[in-house]
Specification:
mainly alpha
């Protein structure tokens, strides 16, 4: 009955939030910024042997997806705070809808928003010449990783919203994760990071493994083997 409750909820508030945010949300601008500016400005470093001949566009693509997850899926908590402040959440609690469904509703809406954003980013990438050596399997694995990370981050955002019931606190909880994007293998492989403290931060940073998994999915011909190698090479042991 949880899923039935989810569908009832998604027909109202999350559906409206998704429609409003997918096309006007600033995260799409941020993702385009990552792709266009950094690719044009830093693509020359992909000639270094540590990149293994990988096109820099493929290398930077996961950064735009992860930033979209932090900003877009993280908005699920702010949407829930809106419901709490407007009284909509209290009215939902009076209905026979499952409490789990009430919480999952904004999380699934945030994940769906990220799914649409990721497809749009891939579409723009293909128009700009993006190629995925791993083929369709690499494309779908990247989508799965994006959705998994988006759902997890939406859950974190919703948890902060339920705990604080405050829009500013929910927004601050999301913004705390933005530095993690840059304390990682964002622009160069781990082998090219010279600062030891940054290497330690990248090793402890969960977004490192998400981005490395996506990179392996985007440019690995031997998908499974390279996927395992890219993720395991970021571990401290």
């Amino acid at each position: 009955m949880i899923w039935a409750g989810n569908f009832d909820i998604d027909e109202t508030q999350p559906a409206r939030d998704l429609t409003e945010s997918v096309f006007v949300h600033p995260e799409l601008d941020h993702q385009r910024f990552f792709l266009l500016v950094y690719t044009n400005g830093l693509s020359g470093i992909s000639s270094l042997p540590q990149f293994g001949g990988v096109d820099y566009f493929n290398f930077i693509l996961p950064v735009s997806i992860v930033s979209g997850a932090v900003g877009g899926a993280g908005g699920a908590g702010q949407a829930l705070v809106k419901d709490i402040e407007s009284g909509y959440f209290a009215r939902l609690l009076l209905t026979p809808v499952s409490r789990t469904a009430i919480v999952l509703g904004p999380m699934l809406a945030g994940m769906l928003q990220l799914f649409v954003q990721t497809l749009l980013i891939f579409g723009m990438g293909f128009l700009l010449g993006l190629s995925i050596p791993a083929g369709i399997s690499g494309f779908f694995l990247t989508i799965i990783l994006a959705l998994g990370f988006g759902l997890a981050f939406a859950g974190y955002s919703v948890g902060v919203a339920l705990k604080t019931r405050n829009a500013q606190a929910a927004q601050a909880g999301t913004l705390l994760f933005f530095p993690l994007i840059f304390l990682s293998t964002t622009f160069v492989p781990k082998e090219l990071i010279e600062a030891e403290w940054l290497k330690v931060a990248a090793t402890l940073n969960p977004t490192t493994y998400i981005m490395e998994g996506m990179r392996a999915s985007c440019y690995a011909r031997r998908l499974i083997g390279v996927f395992i190698h890219r993720v395991s090479s970021s571990l401290p042991f």
